[in-house]
Design brief:
Elements: E1 11-16, H1 26-37, E2 43-49, H2 56-59, E3 64-70, E4 80-84, H3 90-96, H4 106-115, E5 122-128, H5 141-163
Parallel strand pairs: 1-2, 1-3, 3-5
Antiparallel strand pairs: 4-5
Helix pairs in contact: 1-5
């Protein structure tokens, strides 16, 4: 399915990360919060965990894809970064940011799939600065305290996608 084809404003929100590594799993925890809060019917939530490649085929049916992952950018824990895939220079991104502990990075996976025209044009990456990325279950106390603000940013992005 080509990326220029329209799909009636459907939005996918994908949470990635390893829930066994504290804040590395923030994307998955955000998806859990969005499920509890509720999203519009034409928004689909994906818990990709550490297997983002497993959901790539599913994402081709959406007009906008929003991906949430832990991202190191040097700001305080809980800081939120927004990147459009087309604006990223992979080498620069890799040198400045650790998106996850996955073997192949999230950005590399997305760019490879864009080459095959298997993803929509509109891809937004939401990164959350982790406080702790070490073995453990759940989020650090710092990120747990910022979860409402993180979810609010996602809800704003979902609403913005519905307006366009």
């Amino acid at each position: 399915m080509g990326s220029t084809e329209l799909h009636n404003g459907k939005v996918a929100v994908v949470g990635t990360g390893n829930i066994l590594m504290l804040d590395e799993g923030v994307g998955v925890h955000v998806i859990d919060q969005l499920r509890r809060k509720g999203v519009p019917p034409d928004v689909e939530l994906f818990d990709a965990g550490v297997a983002i490649a497993d959901v790539m085929d599913d994402l081709s049916q959406f007009d906008r894809v929003i991906i949430v992952d832990a991202t190191r950018g040097g700001e305080e824990p809980g800081a939120i970064y927004k990147y459009r895939l087309e604006d990223l220079n992979m080498e620069d991104f890799r040198n400045r940011h650790l998106t996850s502990a996955h073997e192949i990075t999230l950005v590399e996976t997305l760019m490879l799939n864009k080459l095959t025209d298997n993803l929509p044009e509109d891809i937004l990456l939401i990164g959350v600065e982790p406080a702790r990325m070490e073995a453990g279950i759940g989020l650090s106390e710092i990120l747990e305290g910022k979860m409402d603000a993180i979810v609010d940013v996602l809800m704003e992005e979902i609403a913005a996608a519905k307006r366009t």
